[in-house]
Design goal:
By secondary structure, the chain is mainly alpha-helical. The chain has one domain (3-82). The protein contains 3 helices and no strands. It has helices at residues 12-28, 32-49, 67-82. Helix 1 packs antiparallel against helix 2 (32-49) and helix 2 (32-49) runs antiparallel to helix 3 (67-82).
């Protein structure tokens, strides 16, 4: 999909970082702000490349079609700004 929009295929490793390494960093609380930033960047790219045609569409029951994707994006942005709190491994 990245090559389809003119990006180099090496950027596909960014998906690996954003979907595997980022959540692991958040879960263990080690550089959780960095992990949350990686998740946020990953979600922005996913929204731009995959879901751009359905950004504000509603589902059958009236909820946003991309409610889960927006949830992941906004929670990761909030965690990147607020930090992991007192349960962080390295207190950053």
């Amino acid at each position: 999909m990245l090559e389809g929009v003119g990006l180099p295929s090496v950027f596909a490793y960014g998906v690996l970082v954003g979907e595997v390494l980022g959540p692991i960093l958040v879960l263990i609380g080690w550089y959780a702000r960095v992990g949350a930033g990686l998740i946020a960047i990953n979600m922005l790219v996913a929204l731009a490349l995959v879901h751009s045609h359905e950004l504000f569409q509603l589902s059958e029951n009236g909820a946003l079609q991309l409610e889960l994707q927006y949830f992941f994006l906004f929670v990761s942005v909030a965690l990147a700004f607020a930090g992991p709190g007192r349960f962080s491994v390295n207190r950053t």
